[in-house]
Design goal:
Length: 162
């Protein structure tokens, strides 16, 4: 079942986010080097918690959870621009330890239906090109996303000049 997040779900949502982003943060830390990565994204491993709490406080109807057998096993944040009619799938994850299949696809279908009902004309989702994001890229393709624009992020440590 996909439903709106409740305040009592937030601790579980934040734990899922922390677990799901662990490999991504590891990859980025290795790519940038620990010292530079900590300058760019200090306390990254705890960064999703305040973001999710703020997002939920501002848009409780834009944060959904996936529930299986009474337990929250995933979440998805959405955004809608009612002027441009372009929606966005933002932070989303499935508990990497839940053992359930199809949770992500069920969440994507639910929000795609909402976007259509709200009159959105397009939807975007952004993810990384690294190996840690490979499962997300596969999931978005399965959900029907086809077009992509690749980007590269360059980082410079101004204190070291490199």
């Amino acid at each position: 079942m996909i439903r709106f997040c409740k305040s009592e779900d937030l601790d579980t949502v934040c734990r899922i986010a922390k677990d799901a982003w662990e490999k991504i943060f590891d990859h980025l830390e290795n790519a940038f080097g620990k010292e530079l990565y900590n300058k760019v994204n200090p306390d990254c491993r705890n960064s999703k918690t305040p973001w999710l709490h703020k997002f939920f406080a501002e848009h409780p109807d834009w944060l959904y959870v996936a529930e299986r057998n009474g337990k929250v096993v995933g979440f998805i944040c959405i955004m809608m621009n009612f002027n441009s009619k372009v929606a966005q799938i933002s932070n989303n994850a499935v508990d990497p330890f839940c053992g359930e299949k199809g949770v992500g696809q069920e969440m994507y279908q639910k929000v795609l239906e909402r976007f259509k009902a709200e009159g959105m004309r397009a939807v975007m989702v952004t993810t990384g090109l690294d190996d840690a994001h490979a499962p997300a890229r596969r999931a978005y393709k399965r959900a029907g996303f086809k077009l992509k624009a690749e980007q590269v992020c360059y980082i410079m440590d101004l204190e070291k000049g490199e």
